């Protein structure tokens, strides 16, 4: 099936970033959230990012204007449901997502494809809240979604090849790169990247070297940013939440075990750049 | 000086070349031939770069000249453990690096519990004289870079073993999703899967923590001398 219209459920950081990409990709975009101020904020962020793109000469002004025209706001789920592709980017809570999908399922045309931007929940489990498991897929974008080139397409057990192909075509039109992953905890990136943080935290805890030395060493190995600078940038709370999520999803497999240092820092409000202090000080 | 370097892998030739550029004479040895050799040439510096089986590492270290400054590649065993295998352990210093080695790159150095001050000084001066930046790290298998990178590669093999995605997609994902300099499988090929396996087995032996268990698929590819790519 050909996708021409896309709904994004949730106008937060990921949602508005995906909407930006979809609008520039030529799709008619419906951006939904529970209250008008959330959608408005999301649209303002999109406009800001478009303006920045033009200023940096990454986009031409006409393309940016066209993109703006393609985005429509709604607080009616039934309205959002009238699209070919519906991408859910709501808070990372299973019950909330299942409820949303159940409601969308009742209103959306039979041919509509449902996608979730979840980073940690099972596609099959969410799909079971609908009658369209074959047209249910994961589309996991990376922050910031308007810029990061990668999308993980996650196929559930029941996801049809046709749905996967439609998802791939969508990602290609966004000029992003798709990788295909089975419906497993943390998919590819969040799983395989865990030791970058986990072993670094262990080394710090063992007193192998201080954070700055460990970061400098990893930068000599070719990483743009060492693990501690990166955790400070992402936010220690965000990183700790992902680590715990993966650890629990694999039933406490020791490979993914979080570290007391990160819990201690998060619990004492040392979250990184956003609080002025993390592994480094930004004051 | 006369340097004897034992071990053939992605590290050994660049190390040998670096030493030669620094004006030293390097006798290169493949591990099995070294162990079987009747006589070995005199040397002031011994570099053990055996990154696979610990028994081979031990056998190699035991043949080093007793008064030579002895660098043990601490990727698969700590300097302290390696030093405990030899006569005169005070002259043993652990070193670590990850291929590709740069002319003005960084060498990690680890001091074993037994390492004496003169050996430690000589060790740092040796690498600095070769143009390397020397960073001191705690003595532990894998040191810093190899430990972190090999655990990432091991996890990629674990994911591949479960067939969650293709090797190509896993490499692309880590490069584009989190800006890794190369994908884990490409990196594994650069380092050598036998070395990656050696690091994981070294970590596992050191910590006895299941966290470090090598992925069976990593072992299979290393033994088969193949790559998933």
Key terms:
heterodimer, A: 283 residues, alpha/beta, Rossmann fold, N-(1-d-carboxylethyl)-l-norvaline Dehydrogenase, domain 2, 2 domains, eight-stranded mixed β-sheet, B: 229 residues, seven-stranded mixed β-sheet, 7 strands, 15% strand
What's this model, at a glance?
Chain A has helices spanning 13-24, 36-55, 61-69, 77-80, 94-107, 123-127, 161-173, 189-192, 194-205, 211-220, 227-234, 236-249, 260-267, and strands spanning 5-9, 28-32, 71-74, 85-88, 113-116, 136-141, 150-155, 177-182. By secondary structure, chain A is of the alpha/beta class.
Average of the residue pLDDT scores of chain B: 97
How widely separated are the two ends of chain B? 41 Å
CATH level 1 name of the largest domain in chain B: Alpha Beta
Structural class by secondary-structure content of chain B: alpha/beta
Question: Largest sheet of chain B, order of strands side by side?
Answer: 2-1-3-4-5-6-7
In CATH terms, what is the fold-level topology of the largest domain in chain A? Rossmann fold
Radius of gyration of chain B: 17 Å
Q: In total, how many domains does the architecture of chain A comprise?
A: 2
How would you describe the oligomerization state of the chains in this entry?
Answer: heterodimer
**What is the level-2 CATH architecture name of the largest domain in chain B?**
3-Layer(aba) Sandwich
Q: Which stretches of chain A of 5+ consecutive residues score pLDDT under 50?
A: none
Q: Which overall shape of chain B is indicated by the principal axes computed on the Cα atoms?
A: globular
What Rg of chain A do the Cα atoms give?
20 Å
Strand order of the largest sheet of chain A: 3-2-1-4-5-6-7-8
H/E element order of chain A: EHEHHEHEHEHEEHEHHHHHH
Distance N terminus to C terminus of chain A? 53 Å
